[in-house]
Amino acid sequence: VKVKIPFGNKHLDAIFSVPEEKSEYGVILTHGAGGDMNFPHLLSLAAYLASHGILCLRFTCKGLNVAYRTKAFKTVVEYLKLSDDYKLSGVFLAGRSMGSRAAASLIRQLSQDDDDDFIQGLICLSYPLHRPKLQSKLRDEDLLSLRCPVLFVSGSADEMCEKQLLEGVASRMKAPKKIHWIDKANHGMAVKGRTTDDIMEEINAQVFSWLRENVELEHK
């Protein structure tokens, strides 16, 4: 289902992937610095989640400024929260690369504003912890302030997220967290000798099992 979400004097293009049965939880998903919501990894994950009973709303925001992207993400969260068509108990924010930075930044902002528990957790696909070859400046401030569950799916050869550095940041995080490493994958999640479909199957299955675990924990 295609929608246009008002955003200032513009609008954000978004698409709902809707499961056959009513979904209690949803995932809001966005792309990295390049591309848009039809990036193949996002399409694959959205279809997988919907086929496993989880609503997925993915959107495009082309801005390269993290504050602007965060603002757009907030607009989409509010849109879904007030939606009469899809009444959800909660959502998980998910993004690829820069999109995951915007999601983390938004959760940090919202946790300072109120105690609303609509946002249940964060999914970071290829979180860009540092610029390539600039490991001394880590983008870890938002991560260290989070309290909700966080899933990282990263390539062990990601030039923007050195394995040891992410594990170090994770060990300092207060939030419940899990890291799933895609062996030998780079920032774009490509692995020599493996097909994109094969890698996406691994990512999709990881994301879904983590979501299911966290929704079940909520209900215990």
From TrEMBL:
Record the organism.
Pitta sordida (Hooded pitta)
- Protein name from the UniProt record: TEX30 protein
Q: Where is the KANL3/Tex30 alpha/beta hydrolase-like domain?
A: 27-208
List the signal peptide residues.
none
**Pfam families noted in UniProt:** Abhydrolase_11 (PF20408)
